[in-house]
């Protein structure tokens, strides 16, 4: 499948989910964006042309994945501040919304 075809399928799924689930994922994206901006205040996206054009995407992803788990911060203040803007009680989120 091409990236465009996959994007079209994802778009169809997104447009079919219930409003509450859409709010959940939108809120989660705002929370993670805020956490990222606190952890990396001077971050600026600077794409670099890949030199791995002949490799499969799985090989490139495995080489470029470097998760820094040493940077763990208490984000409860961010979560409580941000979630008050949308009326979703995160303690009542259906686990199926997270792990379909």
Automatic annotation (TrEMBL):
Annotated SUPFAM superfamilies: HMG-box
Classification via Gene3D superfamilies: High mobility group box domain
Originating species: Rhizophagus irregularis (strain DAOM 197198w)
Entry protein name: MATA-HMG
């Amino acid at each position: 499948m091409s990236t465009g075809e996959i994007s079209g399928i994802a778009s169809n799924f997104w447009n079919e989910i219930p409003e509450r689930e859409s709010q959940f994922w939108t809120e989660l994206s705002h929370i993670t964006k805020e956490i990222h901006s606190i952890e990396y205040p001077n971050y600026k996206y600077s794409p670099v042309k890949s030199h791995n054009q002949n490799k499969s995407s799985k090989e490139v992803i495995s080489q470029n994945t470097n998760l820094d788990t040493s940077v763990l911060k208490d984000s409860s203040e961010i979560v409580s501040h941000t979630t008050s803007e949308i009326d979703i009680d995160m303690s009542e989120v259906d686990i199926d919304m997270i792990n379909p």
